[in-house]
Amino acid sequence: xxxxxxxxxxxxxxxxxxxxxxxxxxxxxxxxxxxxxxxxxxxxxxxxxxxxxxxxxxxxxxxxxxxxxxxxxxxxxxxxxxxxxxxxxxxxxxxxxxxxxxxxxxxxxxxxxxxxxxxxxxxxxxxxxxxxxxxxxxxxxxxxxxxxxxxxxxxxxxxxxxxxxxxxxxxxxxxxxxxxxxxxxxxxxxxxxxxxxxxxxxxxxxxxxxxxxxxx
Length: 216
Fold this sequence. Notes:
This protein is α+β, with helices and mostly antiparallel strands. It is built from six helices and seven strands, in the order H-E-E-H-E-E-E-E-E-H-H-H-H.
């Protein structure tokens, strides 16, 4: 007669084999059933009025647009016979640049330098020499290549705080690698030099500019 422990072991093994068989069958079934492949088609256009301008660098801007069929129909615009007119305006409405296109959907690179200003793109048509706006883009602020040296009062404050000459120069230059003309840069440095010379005449040693020690 088998002991209770032997019977328990036998039953355990039988259950394990049943479970393994079931698991194997499930695995086979899962491998045979392939997931459905869903394909999404990217539309060629969304038929939604869109106009955007993006800053690429200091002298390049990317514009993309879409004029919907509804807008073209509403404004009686036939792009087979006329063109869309795009113009870049500053915040005061002054036209800085323009181009045209016969396409309701497109993009365009502007190669021009708009220095430190807010600009916007407007799209429309030209009728009898007059621009008829359809809609406008987002507004962006263009890059600045200006070297912004502080005022006389700001210089005085920096010196009182114990900044060195090199720290003053470093703290006043914005976008150094995109700086303006060399003549303008030399002019600004000359202004700084004259300021230091005036300071020395007033009893401020030039060595105090170079030590860079900050006072408490």
